[in-house]
Amino acid sequence: MSTNRVRICIADDHNIVRQGLRALLSTNPRYLVVAEAGDGIQAIEIARTTNPDLVILDHKMPKLDGIDAIAEIRRARADAKIVILSGHWDEEKVKSAFLNGANGYLLKNCDFKELEIAIESVLSGFYYITPVVSHVILSPYIGKEKITIMRSRKDLLSRRERQVLKLITEGHRSREIAGLLYISYTTVLKHRANLMAKLGVHSVADLIAYAGRNSLID
Fold this sequence. Notes:
single chain; Arc Repressor Mutant, subunit A; 2 domains; six-stranded parallel sheet; elongated
């Protein structure tokens, strides 16, 4: 996966959905939308040609169904993460999505915060299913397929990010944190930016407040 911005492809047969997703994703500086597709065949092609880290894929599309496109995208980009964003669901379709190689499944009535959580979850190596359907879908797989649900945003943070967050909440400045953790000042700023992106906040004050409200510090 890219070491810089997360390269994202969007595949949906509705222009307004693609435009809306692009606009929302552009509000997070961590994300970069590199291509769009309006059908399943185009989705496979952009996966082959644009080197995405993540593909957000509609469930039902012309020419080739999104579920069927997953396996071809997986062959084209084995390390790319694939998140299905669907207007509806049934148990067999969700199971088929994961069996074909999907990493996440959300419904289009989710809010952007949930989409961000899903993206960060799958990029961190977890699977994500929207809570509306997870209790139905996951029960046969627990302990067999090792599917893991992200329980909170704390699970999205790396060990180092949690260390940096703890020191920030204790009032240490970035240069002090660099000295305490024996890392560079630039690295501290990068960790701080990643923390803000993952937790959906835009200032250090908001970061500290969010950590306190959500018990992110042990």
